[in-house]
Amino acid sequence: MHIQNALYLSxxxxxxxxxxxxxxxFYEQEEDHDKMLLRFAKISFKLLQLQYIQDLKILTKWxxxxxxxxxxxxxxxHIIIExxxxxxxxFSDPQLSRARIMLTQYYxxxxxxxxxxxxxxSLPEAEILANSLERCTPDHAMDNQPEYLxxxxxxxxxxxxxxxxxxxxxxxxYSVEANIEEFKAAVKAYFEHAxxxxxxxxxxxxxxxxxAEVEIGVPRLVKSISVRGRLMNDITGCEDDMSRGQLTNSxxxxxxxxxxxxQDALRELHKMVADTDNIxxxxxxxxxxxxxxxxxxxMGLAQSITVCYNxxxxxxxxxxxxxxxxxxxxxxxxxx
Length: 336
Fold this sequence. Notes:
The protein is mainly alpha-helical. The chain has two domains: about 1-30 and about 35-200, Farnesyl Diphosphate Synthase, CATH 1.10.600; about 205-320, Orthogonal Bundle (Farnesyl Diphosphate Synthase). The chain is about 70% helix and about 0% strand. It is globular and about 70 Å long. The mean pLDDT is about 90.
């Protein structure tokens, strides 16, 4: 089982807590294990698990209070648990509860924007929402829009305002301001995808990836993780996208540009993922003047992407291994 687990997903690209809880069960089976060490490991995980569950209680309470589900048609994904689970890779320590909670809330608004553009809104509606989010204030044309669109905008602006209020008292509004700029870049990229989708347009592979990279950021390390996530998402999620009439993804763009079969395109995209792995490893080894904590956080993002898209689209359809992982984090109780 130990070998089988390692072959499925190497420790390098796995989430730290998943590796830890699995190793506890393996270590317990060793005949000469240290009973005291094992007990401490179990207690440590148990305390962390309780903190994660407390995070979820706060998040589900918030989600019920904002009640966005009752204000929108049922087109968007409810992914509070999935988001919080993946964010554990980025902020796993117990004292980082607020970071996990706020980032889960942030991913929730990004998912609703993505799903609104991708699954429901007309192109004019998507443009009005994008313009309003660019200015962080309602577009004048919003008055004549459907109630669901107003609800989406109000939910997003209220959530961002809550972030600012919470951090202002600590003098940390600079972090909100920086995040708002990245948020606007993400909205711009989502809207560009929406325009392609509504026009049934397949851009060149390079143009598609250039827009995809806008969704996260700039340094070579972060850019490589962004590209890796985009490719893995498309490799595992292209069938689901096409079942909804969404043709614009890296698989189809590559097939059209190079005139190859889907199988050939997938093979080349997998090679590109492997290339980004090499770049990420190189950057982690050679990057200077950056805190090891920052690098660990960035690597955690890469690990969460790998866990999410390793053979399936775990963010949209958390089944199989992803469901097993989440159960081990939130449901299964370790016997002390």
